[in-house]
Design a protein that fits this description.
Layout (H helix, E strand, L loop, with lengths): L1 H31 L4 E2 L3 E2 L6 E3 L3 E9 L4 E10 L5 E7 L9 E9 L7 E11 L4 E11 L7 E7 L6 E3 L6 E6 L4 E10 L4 E7 L9 E6 L10 E11 L4 E12 L2
Parallel strand pairs: 3-9, 11-17
Antiparallel strand pairs: 1-4, 2-4, 4-7, 5-6, 5-8, 8-9, 10-12, 12-15, 13-14, 13-16, 16-17
Keywords: Signal
InterPro entries: DUF4625 (IPR027829)
Organism: Leyella stercorea
């Protein structure tokens, strides 16, 4: 009987030791791997920290996770705690399982979102369960129905979303501006390369118009790095209202 009791005690001790060892190994693994580095460099266009109800919110930032990204969670909630207007999670796709990446997304702000102060909460969790939280203030404004509207017609020849360095790119968009167009800006942005170039149009054929088809062929600069781009197309009217629409997934190559 004593032998049986001794044997059982020995087994329990071994199991307990293995559990402690496993927990210790897990703790050591977490301590040896840094928590994710997560920060949004842009909350809203040019980090304006503003959004319009019924429009989308631009978010962009570099992420580093030595433990590899397992998930990303984004919420936007009223500062008074009354309502969460956006709740978005990323658990698969281009951000998951990687060590370094640039987060770039556009989240829709509901049309019924009340104007006011909000908080953006951005959480990156790695495969070890370690999380880093980044927060930012955000002001949601009511949609001004008299602000300019932009509708892309063609981005690249035949809407191919392609262009060649040193050559011209076909670009068409319909613009409606009840308060008359004051300025048009087209920004080409390569996030991975940290490159941007802005074309500004204040031509007579656009300025002062309330409805016009934008039809231009901006020449891609020779110093533009090859890669994937997005375009920020901004129209400012005579009353000072601005609207920006974005075209994504534009491939610019050397030839």
């Amino acid at each position: 009987m004593k032998k049986i009791i001794f044997f059982a005690a020995s087994v329990l001790f071994c199991v307990f030791s293995l559990v402690l060892s496993s927990c210790s190994d897990d703790d050591d693994a977490k301590q040896s791997v840094a928590k994710p580095v997560a920060a949004l460099a842009e909350v809203g266009k040019e980090n304006s920290k503003e959004a319009i109800a019924g429009k989308d919110l631009h978010l962009e930032g570099d992420l580093v996770a030595d433990g590899l990204i397992a998930r990303i969670d984004v919420t936007i909630a009223a500062k008074n705690g009354n309502k969460t207007i956006v709740k978005q999670s990323y658990t698969e796709g281009k951000y998951i399982g990687v060590r370094n990446t640039t987060f770039h997304e556009h989240l829709d702000i509901p049309t019924d979102a009340a104007p006011g102060a909000y908080t953006v909460t951005f959480v990156v969790t790695d495969k070890l369960g370690q999380s880093t939280i980044f927060t930012s203030d955000l002001t949601v404004k009511a949609l001004d129905k008299t602000a300019p509207t932009i509708t892309f017609k063609e981005v690249g020849e035949d809407d191919s979303h392609k262009a060649v360095i040193g050559q011209k790119m076909h670009l068409e968009a319909q613009i409606e501006a009840p308060h008359k167009i004051a300025k048009i800006e087209v920004e080409f942005h390569n996030t991975a390369a940290g490159y941007e170039h802005v074309f500004t149009y204040t031509d007579e054929k656009y300025v002062g118009e309330t409805s016009v088809l934008f039809h231009e062929h901006p020449q891609i600069p020779t110093d533009a790095p090859a890669g994937e781009y997005h375009i920020h197309f901004t129209v400012t009217d005579a009353a000072g209202n601005s609207t920006t629409e974005e075209a994504e997934g534009i491939l610019i190559t050397k030839e």
